[in-house]
Design a protein that fits this description.
Length: 329
């Protein structure tokens, strides 16, 4: 039995390759990886350079809209064909259709490079290979937990780097939105955040439920905008990119399977990767808060009664109504 360990997106691609009869070791044997450009929330793609007998090859995977914009050709039936605007639009529509069904979409492309190695690789003139749609199902209990948070007066917002259609479809499945709202009003992309000044963004945040295609800078700006409106903000995350927002929030929460940076930055670490744990913690915290209020109210009311009784007896010239020993008793 094959066990897949690592990032869920990478393991999903490995499973797809295995199911298609592609053996990774055979692929690795055809070319040595000599350079890597890690995924960045700014570029929205990852690229690697491989040395082969036919020359160096650049392999790219990333957001469909980014990869398609950098593609000048595509592969069909094993042949490389010039990419027209009409064909590019068809690929865009297919990506949007899959995203609207709740799939995470990832486009794949490559480009031949000169044999001489260079540290500065230009990701352009790509040959578009295709798109992968990855199912990331929602846990069965999450919808009920979201409903519970709404009933408790807690506002839940989704912040993701995925396509806005994917995020909106998942939000509908979770019950964060009903589907009857104005989509443009409740869904905000990273490029829209960049276009707003602080005051305009504070107004935008009031109605927004889903943030898509965001960067770490966008996340911390969302947190600050919510705090400026008087909200107490709890930020949940698992990656290095989430660390600034986790630290900037009133309550930073990291999941147990997250990166060490996120855990060290957070105020609280969830041992179970479950949103329900946060809700349970809030419930217990509110019980403790109510009990403390009851105790303080009881002590203040009884102490006030004793002060009034003793003061009144002294002013009236009577013996002290309660001796210290009686008060302690």
């Amino acid at each position: 039995v094959i066990q897949y360990v690592g990032d869920t997106t990478e393991t999903a691609l490995l499973k797809l390759a295995d199911a298609s009869g592609i053996v990774r070791m055979d692929v690795d044997a055809t070319g040595e990886r000599i350079q890597e450009m890690p995924f960045s929330s700014d570029t929205k793609y990852m690229a690697t350079v491989h040395r082969t007998t036919e020359g160096n090859v650049l392999s790219v995977k990333g957001a469909p809209e980014v990869v398609l914009e950098k593609s000048s050709a595509y592969v069909q039936n094993g042949k490389k064909i010039h990419m027209t605007e009409k064909q590019k639009k068809l690929f865009f529509e297919e990506a949007s259709r899959n995203a609207s069904l709740g799939y995470r979409t990832l486009s794949l492309a490559y480009a031949p490079l000169p044999k001489e190695e260079s540290k500065n690789i230009s990701v352009s003139d790509l040959v578009y290979v295709g798109m992968v749609a990855i199912a990331d199902p929602v846990r069965p209990d999450v919808r009920d937990v979201i409903a519970l948070t709404k009933a408790a007066g807690i506002r839940v917002m989704m912040i993701t780097g995925d396509h806005k259609d994917t995020a909106y479809a998942v939000a509908k499945e979770l019950g964060l939105v009903t589907g009857k709202e104005n989509k443009e009003r409740i869904v905000c992309e990273g490029k829209e955040i960049d276009a707003c000044d602080d005051r305009a963004f504070e107004k935008r945040v009031r109605d927004t439920v889903v943030f898509a295609r965001v960067s770490p800078e966008h996340k911390i700006r969302i947190v600050k905008a919510l705090q400026a409106s008087g909200a107490v903000v709890a930020m949940t995350g698992d990656g290095v990119n989430d660390a600034p927002a986790i630290k900037g929030a009133d309550i930073g929460i990291a999941v147990g399977s997250g990166s060490d940076v996120a855990k060290q930055t957070a105020d609280m670490v969830l041992l179970e990767n479950s949103f329900g744990t946060i809700v349970a913690a809030v419930e217990q915290g509110r019980i403790m808060y109510r009990n403390i209020k009851k105790i303080v109210l009881y002590l203040l009311s009884s102490s006030f009664a004793e002060v009034v009784m003793i003061t009144a007896s002294i002013l009236a010239g009577f013996p002290v109504a309660a001796l210290p020993a009686q008060i302690l008793w």
